[in-house]
User: Fold Phosphate/phosphite/phosphonate ABC transporter substrate-binding protein from Mycetocola lacteus.
Amino acid sequence: MLKKSLSALALIGAAAIVLTGCSANAGSGSSASPEAVKDPTELTLALVPSQDQSGLVDTAAPLTDFLTKELGITVHGVVSKDYQAAVEAMGAGQAQIGFLPSLQLWQASDKYGAKTVLQTERNGNISYPAQFMTNNPDKYCTDKPVERDGKLFCNGADALKGPAGLDSIKKIKGAKVAVLGPGSPAGYIYPMLALKEAGLNIDTDINKLPVTANDASVLAVYNGDAEVGFSFWDARDIVKKDTPDVGQKVVVFALSQEIPNDGVTLSKDLSPKLQDKIAKALADYSNTEAGSKVLQSIYSITKLAPADPKSLDVVARAAKTLGLQ
Assistant:
């Protein structure tokens, strides 16, 4: 089922995911009262990985199998690199469960009334900073880099919690910078927000090198293709196996303000009862050894925790400032 759904997803644009039999009330709108909602007989789960998606098709299957058993409703999975396609699928009634980054959690809620029920927990945290990395610490570090867990940091970034070192980002003006797409919170949104708030023109003051994933941003800095790169903390670990000296050659010199973790959002077209059931099933799954292993394979998720709706307020501000609504 997952491979079939993935093939279908590849055929559509960002406007919607065209899948048959996903919802008995697709596109029904929000006028019906909760008591009148008729839940679908099948569900579609949209996954949007933060790294390269190769290998995720097979590893996600146990998750959809578990949900199918727990809910008594067949759950299909789709894996896409396109964040916006997943949001639009939620709005079109073609996906009912979304594993989405923070911007898309807010967009799904703001545009389509979706409910964020869970946020991913990594090492006990439901937020993380974006990191600014460089291969030229002499330019960006105002103090001597310090080592932590085999990796170098400066300007207080070794505290591992943002914000830190943002006074130094003005020096990025004129530099070549590895940048992810506009849908990436850590690879674009929050670093760009920080640059804009520091007085830089994000269209003309930096030379952008487009990259497709966080690990590619790290490697662009490591290989000297870019002087600075943006990524989630700490994406250097992803490439450490193949480049064991990455923590010494790529220095983190600043951290953005904390970013709400990605999480789980549910369509407004699901009844409150089914929403609660899905949220509980996913949270329980993340607390099992097998479930935690699968979620770590998909999303590096340690655990799924109850969502903090207020944490998305900062996402709204970033989206409005950068015109990403």
In short: The mean pLDDT is 85.
